[in-house]
Amino acid sequence: MILFRLAIIISILFGITFQLSAQSVPRFEPSDCAIQIPKGEKVECGYLIVPEDRTIKNNKTIKLPIAILKSDNPNPQPDPVLRTLGGPGGSSLRMVTGRRFSPWLKQRDMVIFEQRGTKYSQPALECPEVSEAKINSAKAQLNPKKTKEQELKAVKVCRDRLTKEGINLVVYNSTQSAADIEDLRQVLKFEKINLYGVSYSARLMLNVMRDFPNGIRTVVLESTMPLEINYDELGVTEIVRSLDLFFGKCAQNPDCNAAFPNLEPKFYDLVKKTNVEPIVISVKDQKSGENFNLKLIGDDLVTWLVDYSLSSDGNTISEAPLKIQAVINGDYTPLKDYAESKLQPDFYSLGMRYSVWCREEIPFENRSKIAAQSNLFPKLKGYEVQSLPDVCRIWKIPPAKKIENEPVKSNIPTLIMAGEYDAYTPPEWGKMTAANLKNSFFVEVPWAGHGPGFNSPLCVNEMIADFLNDPASAPKTTCLDKINKIFKFKTKKS
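The structure assignment produced for this chain is given below.
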């Protein structure tokens, strides 16, 4: 006992860490970067070590890779920008290459946070079985019903495998991820941080604002998904809003209307026809090098238009009428990229995606409303935005507490940005969020879809940098006027 006390005294006197048990958690361990870093980039990397489940004490931890892009300023501001991507299930580390479009790096470091369960975290909740099932269904030209059946079988295989690996699927959610962000702030000894989230991660940042407000200086929310929105009940409605806006603007524009008269009814006629007689496109499997004939139905045409045109930037949106007319005329070249994507592995870590959605969205949604939604719009009868309501019957995650379906209220200075054509997180949702955030500014970006910071980076990110430097003032929006002057619907090939 005397020796034990003496050892503690010596460790204190000489600044030696005396450990009687395992290392403390949470902690940050500097390390090599989890991904390849561009040459010359100033980045410091490491892993945040946190408990997998904070509700129990079993010493099981997970590792979340962190990349810190160093500011151009040798004496940066003490409050960095923390960024993470959406999905849920998207990997954030690819943003390491975004220095060119991150003007706030002139004054601040940027911390890129890889959420628990995503691609480079340990563990990563990947579901290659589901990607394989979708790819095989496309190759076999299965109809939507059979495709979904194969997908759901693969979901069960993935769930069973991850569970057998000892992964607690229940704790890969927004509440735990918000606590991870707070742990990171504390272990890196930042008194305050600036949060920046897009799409699902904008929802995640709302969680952080609610649960850990004291460590936040400012927040940027882009393409916001509020907690109180029942997403699957509104998915088709928002798709229709975006399409109506697009076709309406073309019809109201003299040049677009003259070049493409009656474009909207022609497009929906093609959707109806193609749901009966699919378009066949030959594409190459990048993995095997083989060519496959893939069938695209009318619902594919809707998804193609929304995802590959209206969810992008001004150039792509302005070219959309031209591409639609080409497809109507029998030139299927514009559909090639979309068709090839059917042979690519899923972009998201699907297990993490399922765990979040099946805990925080589906339990609060009315399945009858989801099923009946597309019947409200005869032009899209039977169209489905995503199959997660069916997936959640298999994933079997207990529901979140009611608070995860309630609006977040805060006084933290917040900039909220939305894309005019965004079909997945429409501007109205951003305005709804702003109404509960007293010190907020809302900006709608024209000629932009989902994630305007990626689609109009120079304009949007300069506004964000302005806001970070002066969060009490509305950012300058003069560049938005320039966007409106630059873009117009194209009527001829360049």
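Interim note for the steering committee: The radius of gyration is 24 Å. Residues 52 and 61 are 5 Å apart (CA to CA).
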